Amino acid sequence: MARIAIIGGGSMGEAILAGLLRSGRQVKDLVVVEKAPARARQLSTTYAVQVTSDIADAAGHAGYVVVAVKPTDVAQVVTEIAAASVKGDDGIAEQVFVSVAAGVSTAFYESSLPAGAAVVRAMPNAPALVGAGVTALARGRFATPEQLREVAALFEAVGSVEEVPEAQLDAVTAVSGSGPAYFFLMVEALVDAGVAAGLTRSVATDLAVQTMAGSAAMLLERMDRDRRGADGALPGGIDTTAAQLRATVTSPGGTTAAGLRELEKGGLRAAVAAAVESAKTRSEQLGITPE
Ligand SMILES: NC(=O)c1ccc[n+]([C@@H]2O[C@H](COP(=O)([O-])OP(=O)(O)OC[C@H]3O[C@@H](n4cnc5c(N)ncnc54)[C@H](OP(=O)(O)O)[C@@H]3O)[C@@H](O)[C@H]2O)c1
């Protein structure tokens, strides 16, 4: 099995490392590059994995090189990776380069790495830290569908995986990248509202969080059923699932209908649409592409 080098042992690098170990990868097939000594010690103690500060050595002996440093550190890291890349007889790098750095284009990597390098860009999200993330993958010019499948298998260790064209990654960032913060804000508002309605903060928090988790579980189960075309699946495809479930739990003239009417009056849909649009624009502004 090809060795995997994770460059950057921050929260996302650690999430990927932990997920790969959980999904059965061997410690001997993994190496982490981390420049902060205290953090490096912590990772090697926790996971019994090789942690080094030598990018060239780690990347030079790996089949997959996963770049998980901050976007502003990518240029320096890629220069070091390029110097160590392993080339086949045709002069093309044999490795697959994977980037989780927000906003750094595959073209940026391709212009810095040896010609023809296979690059896959990944946009995971924070729930990857607990193995429940969703990662969008986009192929660079030279990565093959087979290489994309191999990279998808790596990210399945930290959640589910979708493939999108690279041009859609700013929209992905605005929906699933920033999405956890939208949900945390929603929970915060629901807890505060529950307290205002007379619940203790502790009870309101348990109710709000479990309601979000349970509702997500219902949606996932329904989406799975619809995808499999199982008995009882609602017609109309998965894009209408949330609306259908909402209709199912809203009885005529009931409490939920009264609550939903206030959310609509308060402009929830418009606020969400504006949030996603604004986050997408910000992601486009922050992007790093070749000169
Ligand atoms: N966290 C998320 O939820 C999330 C979601 C999607 C995408 N991402 C992307 O994932 C990447 C990493 O995010 P993060 O939250 O894990 O950031 P982070 O906590 O800052 O981790 C980056 C780590 O890489 C280390 N590093 C920097 N330059 C290095 C070098 N030359 N050699 C070795 N190690 C180096 C940093 O050390 P120092 O601290 O000493 O610089 C730090 O420990 C970012 O590009 C981000 O856009 C993160």
UniProtKB/TrEMBL annotation:
Pathway connected to this protein: Amino-acid biosynthesis; L-proline biosynthesis; L-proline from L-glutamate 5-semialdehyde: step 1/1
HAMAP family linked? P5C_reductase
Give the EC number(s) listed in the UniProt record.
Answer: 1.5.1.2
InterPro entries assigned = 6-PGluconate_DH-like_C_sf, NAD(P)-bd_dom_sf, P5C_Rdtase_cat_N, P5CR-like_CS, P5CR_dimer, Pyrroline-COOH_reductase
The record describes the protein's role as: Catalyzes the reduction of 1-pyrroline-5-carboxylate (PCA) to L-proline.
Q: Name one GO molecular function term.
A: pyrroline-5-carboxylate reductase activity
Where does this one sit in the cell?
Answer: Cytoplasm
Give the transmembrane ranges: none
This enzyme catalyses: L-proline + NAD(+) = (S)-1-pyrroline-5-carboxylate + NADH + 2 H(+); L-proline + NADP(+) = (S)-1-pyrroline-5-carboxylate + NADPH + 2 H(+)
NAD in keyword set: no
**Protein name according to UniProt:** Pyrroline-5-carboxylate reductase
Q: What class of enzyme is it?
A: oxidoreductase
Q: Which GO terms describe its biological process?
A: L-proline biosynthetic process
Q: Which UniProt keywords apply?
A: Amino-acid biosynthesis, Cytoplasm, NADP, Oxidoreductase, Proline biosynthesis
Do you know which PANTHER family this protein is assigned to? Answer: PYRROLINE-5-CARBOXYLATE REDUCTASE, PYRROLINE-5-CARBOXYLATE REDUCTASE 3
**Domain Pyrroline-5-carboxylate reductase dimerisation, residue spans:** 166-286
Species, as recorded: Mycolicibacterium fallax (Mycobacterium fallax)
Pyrroline-5-carboxylate reductase catalytic N-terminal domain sequence ranges: 3-103
Q: Which domain of life is it from?
A: Bacteria
Q: Could you confirm whether the keyword Coiled coil appears in this record?
A: no
Q: List ligand-binding residues for NADP(+).
A: I7, G8, G9, G10, S11, M12, A68, V69, K70, P71
Q: According to its UniProt record, where is this protein mainly located?
A: cytoplasm
Family designation:
Belongs to the pyrroline-5-carboxylate reductase family.
Q: Give a GO cellular-component term.
A: cytoplasm
Pfam families noted in UniProt:
F420_oxidored, P5CR_dimer
